[in-house]
Design brief:
This protein is an alpha/beta fold and about 160 residues long. It contains three helices and seven strands; from the N terminus they run βααββββαββ. Helix 1 runs antiparallel to helix 2. Pfam families: GreA_GreB (PF01272).
Length: about 160
C-alpha cells in the first residue's frame, strides 16, 4: 500500500537493514538450527509487539527478521569432511602461539562465531590463514605466529 493512503500516526518507520557480509554464508548444521531458532523467536516477539502496538519494537524486530530470513535463504550447510589432514570449514584446530599458549577453535559460519567459546568465523583473518593448512604449518596469528598442532572434527573437541 502506498504511504499516501496511510495516516501518519499509523506509519511505522523502517530501520535500515542490517549489513550482510560479502562472504559466502557457510554454516554448520548447528548454525542453521541456530538461525531457524532465531527466526522463530523473532516471529513470536513480532506477534507480541503487534498485539501491544509497540511501533518501535515492530520496526526493530522486522529489521532483524529480514536479516535472519536473508541469512537462512542464503545459508549453505557445509559438512565436515571425513579426513582431517588439512584445515577445512567445520574443523577443530589447535594452535600453539609463539608465546606458548595453546588455543582450540572450530571454524564456523559468521553468525555462529564466538571466539570466547572457541568458535571462529571462517571470514576472520585467523581462520582464513588456517584454511587449507596442515599440522606443522605456521600461520600469522595477530602480532605473532602460531603452529597448527592438531586438526579434528567437532566430535574431537574438548569441553569448552
Amino acid at each position: 500500500m502506498s504511504r499516501a493512503f496511510v495516516k501518519e500516526s499509523d506509519a511505522v518507520d523502517e530501520l535500515p537493514d542490517r549489513i550482510v557480509s560479502e562472504y559466502p554464508n557457510y554454516v554448520t548444521a548447528e548454525g542453521l538450527s541456530l538461525i531457524e531458532m532465531k527466526i522463530a523467536e523473532l516471529q513470536s516477539r513480532l506477534a507480541q509487539a503487534q498485539i501491544e502496538g509497540d511501533r518501535d519494537a515492530l520496526s526493530a524486530i522486522s529489521r532483524d527478521l529480514r536479516y535472519w530470513n536473508n541469512r537462512r535463504g542464503t545459508a549453505m550447510v557445509v559438512q565436515m569432511p571425513d579426513s582431517a589432514t588439512t584445515v577445512r570449514f567445520g574443523a577443530v584446530v589447535t594452535i600453539e602461539r609463539d608465546d606458548g599458549r595453546r588455543q582450540e577453535y572450530r571454524i564456523v559460519g559468521e553468525d555462529e562465531a564466538d571466539p570466547t567459546k572457541g568458535l571462529l568465523s571462517h571470514a576472520s583473518p585467523l581462520a582464513r590463514a588456517l584454511l587449507g593448512k596442515a599440522v606443522g604449518d605456521t600461520v600469522v596469528a595477530g602480532q605473532g605466529t602460531a603452529e597448527i598442532v592438531s586438526i579434528g572434527d567437532a566430535s574431537t573437541t574438548s569441553e569448552r
